[in-house]
Amino acid sequence: MLISIRELRKLYYVGTEEVRALDGIDLTVEAGELLAIMGPSGSGKSTLMNLLGCLDTPTSGDYVLNERQVSGLDDTALAGIRNSEIGFVFQTFNLLPRTTALENVELPLIYGRMPRRERKRKAREALEKVGLGDRIRHQPNELSGGQRQRVAIARALVNEPSILLADEPTGNLDSRTSEEIMSLFASLNGAGNTIVLVTHEESIAERARRIVRLLDGRVVEDVQVTAKGSGR
Amino acid sequence: MILENLRIALKAIRANKMRSVLTTLGIIIGVAAVIAVVSIVQGLNFVIASELQGVGATFIRVAPERDFNDPDLAGKEITLTYEDGLAVMAHSTALKYFNPVFFRSERVYYGDNKHTSTLLGVGPYHQEVNNHWVDMGRFFSELDIERHARVCLIGRKIISELGLGERPIGKDIIVGNASFTVVGIMEKKGEMFGQDRDDLVLIPITTARDIYGREALKQLILDFKAKSPAEVDLAKDQITQVLRRRHHIAEGKKNDFQVVLQEEILKTTGSILGTVTQVVGAVVGIALLVGGIGIMNIMLVSVTERTREIGIRKAVGARRSDILVQFLIEAVTLSLIGGLFGVLGGWVLGILGAKMIPGFPGAHVPAWAVFLGFGFAALVGVVFGTYPAAKASALDPIEALRYE
Ligand SMILES: Nc1ncnc2c1ncn2[C@@H]1O[C@H](COP(=O)(O)OP(=O)(O)OP(=O)(O)O)[C@@H](O)[C@H]1O
Ligand SMILES: [Mg+2]
Prior knowledge:
- The complex is a heterodimer.
- By secondary structure, chain A is of the alpha/beta class.
- Chain A has one domain: P-loop containing nucleotide triphosphate hydrolases (Rossmann fold, 3-Layer(aba) Sandwich).
- Helices cover 33% and strands 28% of the residues of chain A.
- In chain A, the strands form 2 sheets. Chain A has a 6-stranded mixed β-sheet with strand order 6-7-8-3-9-10, sandwiched between helices.
- Chain B folds into 2 domains: 2-51 and 267-401, no CATH class; 66-255, no CATH class.
- In chain B, strand 8 and strand 9 (195-196) form a beta hairpin.
- The longest helix of chain B is centred in the last third of the chain and has 44 residues, at 262-305.
- Chain B is elongated and about 105 Å long.
- The interface between A and B is medium-sized, with 26 and 21 residues.
- Bound molecules: adenosine-5'-triphosphate (ATP) and magnesium ion (MG).
C-alpha cells in the first residue's frame, strides 16, 4: 500500500463561516495504479491533491505515505518528502520563467543535493523520456503549452518519486494535446509509475484504471475500470 | 549549492540592471567614502610619520608667545634671543644641541638671475637639530659663526633658479644687499603641502645679526634636541626655568614663550585626523544605513514579485533554509557589487583628491581598507537582507503558488 489516508479533513474559515473543503476522506492507493479523481467544481479535488502532495497540511486525519506517517511532520521534513517521494504536475505548468527546460527539470535535483554533472545527465534523460530531447535549451515562452506540460512532467519524474500527482494536467490544453499528454501518462504508468490525476473530462478519466468521485469533500464513488478505454 | 545560489542571484540582478544599480547607490557612496578618506588619511599619516622620523622625538621648539590678549603679556616687549638659547644650553643637563633660527623672505641674485627665497640665519648645529644635512661642500664651522663670515649654504632649488651650474660651490651670490660665498649644498627634501623645502639659503646667525640688525633678531625661534626621548620632559622644565629667570617673569605670571614638543605636534595632527575620520565615519554610517534600507526595500519587492517562483521551488523540495540562503546571497551579492563599484570609485576619488592637494605624495589605499569596504558592504547585505529572506522562506507553498 503506497498511500493510506483516513478521516482526512481540511477546514477553511472565511470570516465566521466554516468551509469543509475535505470532510472525512478515506482512500488507499496501491503502487502501480493509475487513478483519476473526478467531481464537480469545488468538491475538494485540488485540496486533496495538495494534501497528498505535502504542499498543505490537513486539519485532522492520518496520511501514511510509503509506511511513513506524514501528518504532523515539520516544514523541513515535508520539503524532503516533496523532493524525493512526490512529483507534482500543475494545471498551469508552474515552470520558472526565463529559465531553460533543462534548468527547470534540474530544480528538484538541486534541492536533492545531486552533483552537477549527474544532475545534468538525469535532467536530460527525463526530458528525452517525455519526448523533448531536442528542446532542452528552450525557455518556457519558447515552448507550446503541450511542450511546457511535458517539461513539467519531466521535472516531476526526474527524482524518481514514489508517486506522480497531476491536478488537471490537461486543463489548459486543447483536446489533441490533452490526448498526447494522457498517452504519456498512460505509458509512464505502463512503465511502473503510480499516478493520481484530477480531471473534469470523462474521456480522459476513461484512460484510468480506477475512478474516485468526490462531492462536497467526500468520496461518493470509487470504482475499478476493467477494460482500458471501454468506459465503466 | 552556494554556487547555484550565486548563479540565481546574478541572474536576478541582471534581469533588473538599472534597478540594482540604483539600489546599491547608497552602498557605493558609503564604501567609496570609506576608501577615499582612508586613502587620503593614510597618505597624510604617512607624510607626518616620515616627517617625525626625520626630525625625531627629541626635537623641541621654543617660540615667542604671541598671545596679545593675555594681560600678563600685554604691553611687554617679547624677546627670544640667541643668548637665551646659549644660556639654556649652559644650564641644562638634558639637552644635546641648540639651533637658533632667524628667518625672512629675501631676494637672491647671481648675474642676471634673481629669485625670492627663504633666508635662514642658523647656528652651527642646524644639521643635527633638524636632521637635514649638507650634501656637497661643507656646513658652517664654529669659526664661521664666530667671525660672522659671509658664507652660505643653499638648497637645490637655488642652483636651478639662479643658474649656478654644475659647480655652485665657491661661487658668490648676492643675498639681499650682501655678497655671500656658497660653501655647501643642502640635501634634497622635496615638496610638502605645496612648499618647496629645497628653496632656502642658510647663513650664520651672527652674520644675519650684522646685516639685519640686533632689533630684527630679538624674536628668534630656538630649536633644541634633547639627549634622549626619555629626557624630553626634563629638558622642557629646564628650558622653562632658565628662560623665566632670564625674562624676569614673576611667580604666577605666564611664560612669554612657548615650548612645543614633537610629541605634542604629533598629537595635534593626530587628533585633527581623528576628528576628520569621525565625521566622515558618521557620513559613511548614514550612507550605509540608507544603502541597507535600499537593499531591504528592493529585496522585499523582489520577494513579492517572485512569490510564485518561491512557491515552485518549495513545491519541488526547497527547504526554508534553501530559500533563506538564496535570498540572503542575492542581497549580499547585490551589496558586494555596490561595494566593488564603491572601492573603485573611492580609489579614483582618493587619487583625484591627492592630486588636488599640491605636493601631496599620492593616495595610498591599503589592502585592509579594501577588505573593510567589502566587509561593510557584505555586512549591510546580511543585516538588511535577512528580513526579506526570512519573509521569503516563511511563505506557505500553496499560497505562494496561488499568488497572482
Ligand atoms: N484557501 C482557501 N480558503 C477558503 N476556502 C478555500 C480555500 N481553498 C479552497 N477553498 C474551498 O474549498 C473547497 C474545495 O476547493 P478545491 O479547490 O479543492 O475544489 P476543486 O474540486 O479543485 O474545484 P475545481 O474543479 O474548480 O478546481 C471550495 O469550496 C473552495 O471554496
Ligand atoms: Mg481544482
